[in-house]
Amino acid sequence: xxxxxxxxxxxxxxxxxxxxxxxxxxxxxxxxxxxxxxxxxxxxxxxxxxxxxxxxxxxxxxxxxxxxxxxxxxxxxxxxxxxxxxxxxxxxxxxxxxxxxxxxxxxxxxxxxxxxxxxxxxxxxxxxxxxxxxxxxxxxxxxxxxxxxxxxxxxxxxxxxxxxxxxxxxxxxxxxxxxxxxxxxxxxxxxxxxxxxxxxxxxxxxxxxxxxxxxxxxxxxxxxxxxxxxxxxxxxxxxxxxxxxxxxxxxxxxxxxxxxxxxxxxxxxxxxxxxxxxxxxxxxxxxxxxxxxxxxxxxxxxxxxxxxxxxx
Amino acid sequence: xxxxxxxxxxxxxxxxxxxxxxxxxxxxxxxxxxxxxxxxxxxxxxxxxxxxxxxxxxxxxxxxxxxxxxxxxxxxxxxxxxxxxxxxxxxxxxxxxxxxxxxxxxxxxxxxxxxxxxxxxxxxxxxxxxxxxxxxxxxxxxxxxxxxxxxxxxxxxxxxxxxxxxxxxxxxxxxxxxxxxxxxxxxxxxxxxxxxxxxxxxxxxxxxxxxxxxxxxxxxxxxxxxxxxxxxxxxxxxxxxxxxxxxxxxxxxxxxxxxxxxxxxxxxxxxxxxxxxxxxxxxxxxxxxxxxxxxxxxxxxxxxxxxxxxxxxxxxxxxxxxxxxxxxxxxxxxxxxxxxxxxxxxxxxxxxxxxxxxxxxxxxxxxxxxxxxxxxxxxxxxxxxxxxxxxxxxxxxxxxxxxxxxxxxxxxxxxxxx
Lengths: 312, 418
Known about the structure:
The complex is a heterodimer.
Chain A lengths: L1 H24 L1 H30 L2 E3 L6 E3 L3 H7 L2 H32 L6 H13 L2 H23 L2 H4 L7 H30 L2 H9 L4 H12 L1 H17 L2 H6 L11 H10 L4 H28 L5
Antiparallel strand pairs in A: 1-2
Helix pairs in contact in A: 2-14, 4-8, 4-11, 4-13, 5-8, 8-11, 11-14, 13-14
Chain B lengths: L1 H21 L7 E7 L7 H10 L5 E7 L4 H11 L5 E4 L3 H8 L11 H4 L2 H4 L3 E2 L2 E2 L1 E3 L2 E9 H6 L9 H13 L5 E2 L5 H16 L3 H10 L9 H13 L10 H9 L5 E5 L3 H5 L7 E4 L12 E5 L2 E4 L6 H11 L8 H5 L19 H11 L3 E2 L10 H13 L5 H16 L2
Parallel strand pairs in B: 1-2, 1-3, 8-9, 11-13
Antiparallel strand pairs in B: 3-12, 4-5, 6-12, 7-9, 7-10, 7-11
């Protein structure tokens, strides 16, 4: 077994050396390959951000009145005392924590069991993945129907008065729960696929070694598979954290920010600032703060999870 | 070589496609671009274009419907200062802001000015001049199922708040759900709160708004207790899960005779009219006050058309506005957009449309002069949206009446600071 491990190690070192030589030789070609995508990215994101959003954030600019004046950092200072913005921010955090943790745990558990030899696992994987390819608005409408029509009907049919009379959208707490449930339901399929790919890259010989050494069950998952899956965890956390901060579609279609503005995520708050109040300057400042927050949180997450990645 | 050929073919195809999209207009015609917000237009826009273009040899009208939120379109157009020749605006404050900033043209000398009802015309005016053409009026209030009222032994519609409470109680006793809720969406509550506030401030709406706009005003005016008393009755009789029901479920509940009343606008009758055997639906003004004389129909201009001040085709635009405001054209605009149940009636005298109980009931209010405008369209820009959100807190039992007033006052000040 040790000899086999050495052989694998030597092969990987050789492959890496070859790739390094290949990279140096073809670096210009590789750069040419990414150039079209980079150009589109720059045109669609960097130019509007540095040419529009960031400069606008220093202006007091109302689109309806047409008033436009440079006010320096005033928009950013105003943000500190904007209770509506911070309320939205806290809502994002609240939903984000439950959605990120819930969808990643569920995604991993599903991927783990569907990685075993069970019948029709391809079909089951597809079933879990379907919500991810359906539009968030459609998914939300389906769930609104489930919450407001199906569940009360089921509750009444089986005599559960509690279920029949639950007001899913009447209080901030319940409305938040509906958004978390739908967000997890939609995200879990995608994360499951990534976890599945990660699980399939774990070499069988490592797992066999663990088995022979008496490591099995939950211990095997926690001590062997999860550490080896850390690159996948890094990707999935990155995707779900950035998604949680940017959420808009599901709260918009499920609750439209209600009841009484309690489920309004930051993106919706920014939208309202820019297109209801028409304050483009202040809305831009909010966008910049959201961008910096997402960037900071995801960078910290990448740093932390990458440190935990192990090589084999 | 193959790649070059492929590129040439693709470039040719793209040129053809681009050319095709611009081939809408004939070469020698003046082109007028009109933009409208998304709505239940169906094939009406095609019919309007066809109706206009077939009767005008020199002008080609092209109407574009904004598929998303219309405020996005207005925001983007304002940011780039690129406007279509004609576009829809929200009456009152938005028209006034656009006129003040010089974005829309003065239409005071046009023929529609003498035809539009004076109260509706005001919605398109600024500084004594007419800047927008109010095409339709819309009315909000209580739409009720006549058969269900009869079944509960109710012989006449309530004219005071106490009578309204009695009617709700009688319906409930008869095993009929009194009010279909639509409170999940705050825009419905924006309408409801506006109807109730209009009732309270109807004697001096201009003064109330002036006070608010000066930063010195408050929603805690004399009579505000009527608003919350009426809201309490509505809450009591709208069912346990009233905050879970949106406008669609409200329309369906009225159309399917699942509830006796719905607090909404004439647009709800689109759904009722689409039924195979629609119930007979009547209309009455929401009795906010215990003084019957104060309970008037809440009516206001719904759509106003404005002409861009920068248009190079002013004469052609005026021809379009003339077409949109001709009540005598038997195949004209009103025949197309006002002909069915649930359509907003024209803001001028017109012999047409579908007769139904609710529109007849509304006409009685209008003919008797028992109407009052909606206050929400005259708030500072954008505040109407937040007023619905705040009032939703009261309907959900999350805020007290005093909290609602404090929050409305604070929010209004915030919106003034723009």
